[in-house]
Amino acid sequence: MKNKLKNFVFIFFFVLSAHAQIFEPVSWTTSVEKKSETEFILIVNATIDEGWHLYSQNVPEDGPIATSFTFETNSDFELVDTVSEDIGYTVDDPVFGLKIKFFKNEAEFRQRIKVLNKELLLIKGEVEFMICDDTKCLPPSYIDLEFNVKEAQIKTTETVENTKSDYKIVSEIKKEEKKSENKDLIAIFFIAFLSGFTALLTPCVFPMIPMTVSFFTKQSKTKAAGIKNALIYGISIIVIYVLLGVFVSLVFGADALNALSTNVWFNLIFFLLLLVFAASFLGAFEIMLPNSWANKVDAQADKGGLIGIFFMALALAIVSFSCTGPIVGTLLVEAASGGSQLGPIVGMLGFSLAIALPFALFAAFPGWLNSLPKSGGWLNTVKVVLGFLELALAFKFLSNADLVLDLHLLEREMFLAIWIAIFGALAFYLFGKIQLPHDSPLAHISVGRLSLGLIVMSFTIYMIPGLWGAPLNLISAFPPPQHYSESPYGVGFSKLGSGDAVQSDIPDGAHLMAPHDILAFNDYDKGLAYAKKVGKPVLIDFTGKACVNCRKMEQNVWVKPNVLRMLKNDVVLISLYVDDKRPLPDNEVVDSKLKPGKKLKYIGQKWSELQTIKYKTNTQPMYVLMDHNENNLIDPVAYTPDVETYKNWLKNGVSNFKK
Questions:
Q1: Higher pLDDT, 294 or 213
Q2: What do you get for the CA distance between the two ends of the chain, in Å?
Q3: What global pTM score does this model have?
Q4: What DSSP string describes 443-493?
Q5: CA gyration radius, the chain
Q6: Is residue 34 very low, low, confident or very high in pLDDT (cuts 50, 70, 90)?
Q7: How far is CA 52 from the centre of its chain?
Q8: Is the dihedral of CA 296, 299, 303, 308 positive or negative?
C-alpha cells in the first residue's frame, strides 16, 4: 500500500510538472523475425528523443514504473521465456535518487514464441512504460502493439550482418554529426577570438589599453588591488558581450536562427548593413552611438566600486562601437545564420575574451606596456582591411537572396568577378598603390604589410580559374553552386561530344545538375514515379539554395568518383529546396498542418513541412533513402563531410533496396 501511495504521489507530481506542454518523446515500432517454421521472435523497438530516458523492465522498489509487455495469448502460439532487452545504462537517477537501469536514444525488446497454428496471422499486445528526463517524468503510457507473423521471413546471416552494418554506419554518421556540430562551435569561437584580437588593433580600442591599465594601477592602493580591478574590468567586458549573445539566442531561438539563413529579407537587410559597415571602415564616415549614452554610463562609472568598474567596461563598449560594432554585428549574423542557438553566445565569448585578455595581462605586468607599438597609421590600415572583408562578405548575403528568389542576377561568374575585384583592390592597397581618406603618408611598406599583400594577391589569382569552371574547394561555401552559372560547364566549354554526360531523353520534371550531369528532380511525385519506372531507390535531398553545408556536400562529397557513380547510376535523386519561393499552383495551396490557420503558398513551404512532419527535423542538408512505398531503407542522415562514411551509407541503403 505504501508503494502504491508513493507511485501515486510521483505520478500526480509528474502530471502537474508536464501540463504546460504535451511531450511525446518515444515512438514504438514492431517487427517479426522468423527463426524456423515454428519459432519466431517478436521485436519491439523504441526510439527515444535526445535527453529522455525509458526505464528498464526491472527497476528498484520505490522507483519509477517499469516498462512491461503483455500479449493476448491463445491456443495458436505460446510464449517462450520472458522478454529480453538491451544492455542499457545503470546510473544514479537524479529524479528518484536510486540506481536505475534505463535506455536512451533507442532500445530493443525481444520475445521468443512458438507457433502452434500455421494459419496464425497477427499477435496483439501492449506495452506500459514511463519516460523521464533529468528534471521531470511523464505519467505512465500504454501503447497497443501488433505483430504480423504471416509476413515474417527467415533472416539469413547476410541480412543480419547487413543490418548490423547499417546500424554501425548510421551510428558513425550520428557521431560525425555531433562532432561536426562541436567543430562548428569551436570554429565560431576561434574566428570570434581572432576577430576580437583584430578589433584590439583598431584606432578605437588600441589606445585605450595603456590608458585604462594606467588608471587601474595608479588609482589602486596596491599592485594586487590594481590587478584585481583590471581582472574585474576584463570579466565585465566578457559579461557584457556574452549577454548580447544570450539576448540574440533567446529572441530568435534555434529554429528561427536556422530559418534566417534562407530568409530573403534577412539576407537583403544584412547585405545593406554590411555595406554600411564596410563604408565606415573604409573611411566614408563613423558609426557612433549617441553621446548621451556614453555620458550617462560615465556618470555611473564615477561612483567607483564593482558597479563603477562594470560601467567603465560598458563605456568602453559604447565608445569603441564605431570599430567594434561592425565586427560584432557580422559575428552575430554569421553565428546566428549557422542555425545553432549556442552560436551567438560562443561567438561573443570568443570575441570578448580577446578584448578583455590584454587589460588583465598588462595590469598584471605593467612593464609590458613599454613593448606596445605606438599608435599610428597602421591602426587605420587594420580598419581598412576589415572594411574590404566586410564588403566581400556583404555580397555573400546578396547572393543568398538571389539564390532563394532564383533571379540569376548574381550568378557564380558575377560573384567571383566581384570578389576578384575586391581582393585585388585590397592587395593593391596593401602594396601602397591605393590610398584612402584617413591613411597616413606611406614612404615605404613594412615586411608584414608586404607579406599580407602577397597572401591576398595569391588568393585573388586562385579565384580566377573559377570563372572557367574550377571548383575552388577552399571557398566552396561562399560562391553560388557551379550549376547556378551562366556557363555551368565552364566558360567556353561545349557539351557536344562529351560522351555519357549528354542525356538526350531527360524525363519529365528532371534536369541535369551541372557540371557532373547528375539526373535530379525537384518534384517529389514526378521523381518517385520515375524511380518506380526504372526500378531504383529514391534519394531525397532536403536542401536549400542558401544552405552552406549543402554546397559543401555537393562540391566536396558528391563529386568523388565512388559517390558520383552511385548518384548517377544507382539512385533517383529528388532535391527538395525548402527555401524555394516560387508560388504553388492554386490547386496545391492547402492549409498548413504545423501552423493552423495559415496556408502553404510556396513550393519551399511544402517541402519544409514535409520534412518537419515526416522526419521531425527542419535542418538542411538531410538525406533520405527510401523504397517505392516511401519506407526508409536506412536511417536518414544530415551533413556528412566524410566521403567514405557517406559512400557506405549510400551503398548499404541501395543494397537493402535490392533484397
A1: 213
A2: 55
A3: 0.53
A4: SS--HHHHHHHHHHHHHHHHHGGGGGT---GGGTTSSPPTTSSSSTT-TT-
A5: 31
A6: confident
A7: 22
A8: positive
